[in-house]
Amino acid sequence: MLRLLSIVGLMILLAACGTTETNEEPASEPTNGQASEKPEKPEKPPEGNEIVAGELELNVVSFTNDKAVIELKNQTERAQNLEFTSGQQYDMWIMDENGKQVFHWGEGKMFTQALKTETIEPGESKSFSVALPKLDPGTYQIRFKVTSKPPFETTFKQTIE
Prior knowledge:
Blueprint: H1 2-16, E1 56-63, E2 67-74, E3 80-84, E4 90-95, E5 101-104, E6 116-120, E7 125-131, E8 138-146, E9 152-160
Antiparallel strand pairs: 1-2, 2-7, 3-6, 4-5, 4-8, 8-9
C-alpha cells in the first residue's frame, strides 16, 4: 500500500512539473484599466473613421441639476470587453468645496451577484445616466467609476449655480 501511494505521489509531482511552452503573446490592453492610461500607439492610424485616440475614453456628456450622463467611448481599433462581477456597473461620489462627501451613489444599495460581459465595438460608446440629489450652489469635485474589470475612472469639477 505504501509503495502504491509513493508511486501515485511521484506521478502527481512529475505531472505538476511538466514543461510546456506557449507561443501566445500577452494582451496589449492597459494593465490597470484607467481611462487616462496611454496604451501603445497602433502601427497604422485608422483611415476614414472616427477612431482617433486609440484608447477607451471616459467623458462627461452632460451634468444638470438632477442628472449626469457619462460616456465610455471605444477609441481603439478593436472591440473591448467590459466584465462586471455584479449588477453594479458604475459608482459616483460628489465632494463639496471642503472635501466633504455629499453624495455616494452606491451607498446603501444592493446589487445582484451575476457575471456579465459587455462589448463596446470600435467607435461606439456606452452611456451611464445617474440621477443626482438636489445640490446647493457651489463647486463640486465628482469622481465617476465604471466598476468593470478593468475599471475606468474619471474625476472632474462641476459648478452648480
